[in-house]
Amino acid sequence: MAELSTQSKEPAAPKLNEREIVAYLKQHPDFLARHPDLLETIELKHRSGSAVSLIEKQVELLRAKGQRLEDRLERLLEAARDNERRQDNVHRLARTLIRAPSLAGVAAGLTRCMREDFDIDAALIGIGASHYKHHDIDGIVAIDAKGKLALAFEDFFRTRLIECGPIEAARAQLLFPKADGIRSAAIVPLEKEKSLGFVALGSRDPERFAPRQGKLFLELTADLVAAAVRART
Which of 81, 188, 209, 212 is the most exposed place for a label (fewest CB within 10 A)? Predict the structure, then answer.
């Protein structure tokens, strides 16, 4: 009978699954630095079907990340430039309204600044009839409680809340009779608690004013207009 071999077999090396390998590399981020030869021998399939080394793939990923960061920085810089332009334009609007010699100058200055600096096609100031006695200034209307404006914008005069968004042609014509094709508008109260009136801004762009847009610019414009009107009535 053949003699049985007494030589013991070496235990098989434990098999690692991918999850364990990933965990190990995360726990030892310097692994590839200690084994740089792996960077060139490990290959990754490219979408074109050709193989690229791990180091080439890392370079590609770093370039993509760098481009994303560059794009984000450019967006931030552009936003900063836009904010600076808006601030300059608001300052010009304030200076124009303060320096206006009369109510007519206030209305003309508002319309000019809106058109030149904010790409807004039309502007109107409505003042309560008890505060406005002229009735003959272009760009300013007296608000009659029983007039067409009050009836057409009944909800606004009841709530005194900003209305902002698309506007029907008939209502746009009431606000801006000398401006054709107004598709969106914002109507903002002047001195909401005292019901001084309103300022209306209109645009031919149907998306220029939207219901959910920020109201800070509109409120600031209304405050400036209200102050200018009060100083001249």
Answer: 212
